[in-house]
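Exercise 7. Predict the joint structure of the components listed below.
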Amino acid sequence: MAEIEEKLKNYRTAPFDARFPNTNQTRNCYQNYLDFHRCTKSLTNKGLDVAPCEWYRRVYKSLCPISWVDKWDTQREEGIFPGRI
Amino acid sequence: MLSVMTKQLRTHPALIPLFVFIAGGCAMSAAYLARLALRSPDVCWDKTNNPEPWNKLEPTFQYKFIAGNVDYSKLKKEGPDF
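Solution:
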């Protein structure tokens, strides 16, 4: 928990992710968006503090175009989001 | 189709290397496509049992053939577990 706070304090941009080494970072953006929402859902179901999920939020905010994030947020509110959260 | 080819080969046996190389080229292309389809971590065939195969890689997985300036042995998983 302390190390994630440390990482968040020193956060500058999304670090290199070996799963997505190429120029096309679309999947990186989408995966972090999904991971943030899965993380918050999983930790709230367990009753734990959701602060560690902030890492995924910072990464997807760095990577994703704002229009995509807005579109996915409206889709989630309407219940038509295609991904599995 | 095959009878035409065998007739041509019998009269002009010098064409045999041509067919050998064409067959070899087709085999290599098919093999590469099969390798990409079956072994690439970016491909998802089975959405129910294996939904996101790229998430199964360790953080030190080297996808590219030549690593430029990334030291793969030093990488670790960034985000927290949940």
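Discussion. Chain A is about 60% helix and 0% strand.
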